[in-house]
Structures are given as structure tokens and as C-alpha cells.
Amino acid sequence: MVYLLYDVVSLLIGVLLVPYYLLRGVRYGKTRRGIRERLGFYDEARLRKVRNQRVIWVHAVSVGETRAALPLLKALKQEFPRHTLLLTGVTETGRAVADEIDCVDLTIFFPFDLSWVVSRALRLINPALVIIVETELWPNFVRLAHRRKIPLILVNGRISDRSFPRYRRARLLVAPVMQKVTRFAMQSPADAERVQILGAAAPKVTVSGNLKFDIQGQGAADYRLDQVREEFHLPENLAVWAAGSTHPGEEEMVVDVYQQLLSARPELVLLLVPRHPERTRSVAANLRKRGLSCRLRSELTAHSTALRAGEILLIDTLGEMLKIYALAEVVFVGGSLVAIGGHNVLEAALMGKVAVFGPYMQNFREISEKVMACRAGVQVNDVEELFTQTLVLLNDPDLRSEMGRAGAKLIAANAGATARTMQVVREVLRY
Prior knowledge:
The chain is an alpha/beta fold. It has helices at 2-26, 31-38, 44-47, 63-79, 92-98, 115-125, 139-147, 163-169, 171-179, 189-197, 225-231, 250-264, 280-289, 321-327, 346-350, 365-373, 383-394, 397-414, 417-429, and strands at residues 55-59, 84-89, 106-109, 129-133, 152-157, 183-186, 205-207, 239-246, 268-274, 294-296, 312-314, 330-333, 355-357, 377-379.
């Protein structure tokens, strides 16, 4: 009866959300396929990749989870080369990132959590194992996977400070879902304790560490920065401030700080990366209303003129964050000046750059605390502190280098979550 009611509520919500998904999908040309796949209908050519195969199904909801899962995906393909590796997500941006991952055999959208939709998806794909990244535990999906005796592992698991009280109040509903999960590989002892309070049996819970510390990609030294600057039309005399993964309300604050910085550092240019690329044109329109000069990254061609000091380059492309951070003298990581919960500050550390971030870092609490403890980043409380701390860093290259080296050491010291997670996978696949 509970699941029937859940289906009815989910169906009503789904009907209301369909126009939203249609509008979001237009930008990426995946509207029709995205809705069909979320309803459990797949192209026959794509289904042939999983039919009669041993499938490992990895679900990473969006961009952040997909990037975090990358070292695990590579390890899975290396250790289980005869298995078909399926990667699902929910957002178009996450799907676009997933489509570029070489080791993945097939990418599709995750099904809506309606019992008949999930049943169809599980029947058609018939995975040997399901791996969920972080906290995407959908009740019908977990219940029906368990009914089909499909083992399900939660990896890189975390229960945030904000969500834990809500889960705890709903423990009578949450606990049956937790009890059907085969194993939990949690980021920290606190996350492991919380998931047990919510109903997970202690023997099923392992502290594996945070996959984000196993971040992979080229370091700044691996890029030909002269070529990258040429690609972005950045003259050598310009200094770069990068603001990544920004959200509504945050771009305005960042631009206000940028205008202040220009008074002290007139050779500065801002590379601004909204978290959701589909918002970029509206951000550009708002900036132009303020009389500010900005361009879109997608509109740069070989014949474009060079960027000028005081301009803003809005990034509306995907997969260039590390390259942008490599160009920057200082990095601001968004989602942190507004109550979003922050984004991954380790990407800046991988590039040897200082990450500056705001007070709202609850989704990355452990990482941000480690970053501050080793002086690899700076947390600010408001726009005034963002201005003063960024200016200090812009004016002190030795300090920037010292903090960048501290970030690289932090990543190296905390690596290993992929290996520990793979041990859990091996134990489950032995059954």
C-alpha cells in the first residue's frame, strides 16, 4: 500500500516535471530520447550492447557524481573487462560528461522511480550489479532490484548535515530501503554512523574514503598553457580569475567583486562558469544590462579578437573546467556564497591552484575542512572577504605557489578510496 501511494505521488510529480525536462533537453538535443529512456524505452541498437551480457550498472546523478566516479569506472573496466559497463544519470549536463568517458560501454538516462518503469528497465538491462554513487537511493529501484536478487552497493556514500535530520524523522520509511542495500562504502566514519542510525546493518557498512581524492586528469604542468591561452584568446599580459560552478545570485556577487578587483589589478580578466550551462545566455543578458563586456566561450573562433582586460568570458561549454582552472591565478568555487552546499574544491588543488570558497560548504564539509587545515584554500564569509582574500592572493605569487603545493600533497595523502571501494565490489561479486 505504501509503494502504491508512492507510485501515485511520483506519477503526479512526474507529469508536472515533463515540461521542465523537455525544456532542459532542448539545449542538448536529447529531449525525445531522454524522456523515452526515463520511461524505460530504449533504442534497439543500444539495448544490444547489454542484452545477454554481464552488466555493471553505475548510477551517478549529475556532473559532480560522474566526475567523482571516473576513477572507479576505470578500475571496474580494468578488473572486469568482460562485463558491460553502463552509466546512468539524471541531468543533461551529467549525460554530456558521461558520453565522453571512454571506458563506459553505454550511457542512458536513469528511469523514473515508478514501479512499472523500474521493472521494465531492470528486466531489459538485467544487471549483475548496481552501484549507486553518493545518496541516490530511490525506493522502488532499490526494492525491485532486491526482489530480482540484484546486489546493490552505495559507494562514496554520504549523509549531509542538512539531509540527516530529514532522513532521521522519516526513519520508518527510510530503514526498509537501507535494509535492502547489499553494501555501503561510506566517505567517513560520521557518514557510516549516520547510515547505521537510518537502518543499515553494521556488517554491511565500510568506511572507504572519498573518491573525489582520487581525482584524475592532467595537472597544470601537463598542459601547454601557451596553447591553452591561445585557444581562449588570452594575451600573456592578462591575469585570470576563474569562478567555477556558480549559481543564480552568485554571479552578481562575483561580478561585483571583479569590478572592485579591477581597480587594484586592471590587467585582470574573469572566466565565469555557471554550474548549469543552459543558464549562460541569461547570465550574459544580465551582465550586458549592467553595461559589462562579456563573450561566450562557444562563440570564440580562430578569427576572434583577443580578450581585453576587464572583459568577462562566460563558459557555456562542458569538460573544460580543469583547463580553465589551469589558466587561473586564483579560483573561486561556487555554490558556496549562496545556500547550495558548495562544489568540489579539489579540482583547483589538482591544478596546483588556491581554491577560495564561501561559507556554504555543507556538501563538501570534510573536504573543505581538510583543505583549510593544510592551508590549500581559503574560506570567506561574504563578498567583502572574497574581495580582500582574492586580492591578497593575486598580489602574492609565492603564497599562491605554497598553497598550491599544499593542495597537491593533500590529494596524494588522502588517495585510495577507489582501491577500498573495489574491494567491496569484489566481495559482492563473489556471491
